[in-house]
Specification:
There is one protein chain. The protein is α+β, with helices and mostly antiparallel strands and 251 residues long. It has two domains: 49 residues; 195 residues, Jelly Rolls (Sandwich). It has three helices and 13 strands; from the N terminus they run αβββββαββββββββα. Strand 3 and strand 4 form a beta hairpin. The relative contact order is 0.19.
């Protein structure tokens, strides 16, 4: 077995180990107590929202096929999105589920704009390490309201905030599910991951930002991984030198 081959294998293993997902709990939102307004009449395991009882959040959890049919109950009544399941149907392309499964988050950025949003504390981070926050996003509009809407997700990790693309959809429209990746640098071993919907749209035409499939992975090998790799390289090099010296001594 050549030294070059061993080094290549060691590097590949180090990179693979560094790309493992960190501990985002319930990133698909499948563990919950049912459709409804998060923090008001339903909960989503691992995630928190500001108390909606005092005007802190207007974030909903939709189940498979419910967004444009039965909707989800909230503090101001049932929330339903425009879609093919309406009567009469609105063929805007809204699917029954997201690409990541049955349940997903829907947040009204007009009422949620000044709140901390949907958050989770992430542990086991390495300060100075870069992390890729990945998620699926889509945008829709609440049934019964008309007019074009503009939406985006603002994502934060610790003290750093990055924004996804700004998306404008037509009245009663839907913007298809898209996977987004944003790169953050950790400043501590434990930081809060947050998602806050944002929109300049008027209250008269409430938009909804949709979210699913949240993940967090390191994008380069962590220092400890590189250290282990270098120890292996030196050990292999020392073994190769000993073999050469032994061969010369036998001549």
């Amino acid at each position: 077995m050549s030294l070059k081959f061993v080094l290549a294998c060691a590097t590949a293993l180090a990179l693979a180990g560094a790309a493992q997902a960190q501990s985002v709990t319930n990133g698909s939102f499948e563990v919950n107590t049912g459709t409804g307004q998060v923090g008001y009449n339903t909960t989503v395991a691992g995630w928190s929202v500001p108390d909606p009882h005092v005007g802190g959040s207007y974030t909903f959890l939709f189940g498979p096929g419910t967004a444009d049919t039965t909707g989800a109950p909230g503090q101001f009544g049932q929330v339903i999105l425009w879609g093919p399941g309406n009567t009469p149907p609105t063929p805007n392309g809204l699917p029954p589920t997201s690409p990541d499964g049955g349940f997903y988050i829907a947040s009204d950025p007009v009422l949620d704009n000044h709140a901390p949003g949907l958050t989770q504390v992430i542990t086991g981070l390495t300060p100075g390490q870069q992390y890729d926050v990945g998620f699926y996003e889509a945008f829709a509009q609440q049934h019964g309201f008309i007019g074009p809407t503009t939406n985006q997700w603002n994502v934060s990790l610790g003290g750093q905030t990055l924004s996804g693309p700004t998306v404008t959809i037509p009245s009663m429209g839907f913007s298809p599910w898209t996977h987004i990746n944003l790169i953050f640098t950790a400043t501590g071993t434990s930081e809060t991951l947050g998602f806050l919907a944002s929109s300049p749209s008027l209250v008269a035409s409430p938009p909804f930002a949709l979210l699913d499939g949240v993940s967090l992975t390191s994008v380069v090998p962590e220092p400890s991984v590189w250290a282990m790799l270098m120890v292996g390289v030196f050990a292999i090099g020392a073994a190769a030198r000993r073999r050469r010296f032994a061969a010369l001594a036998a001549c």
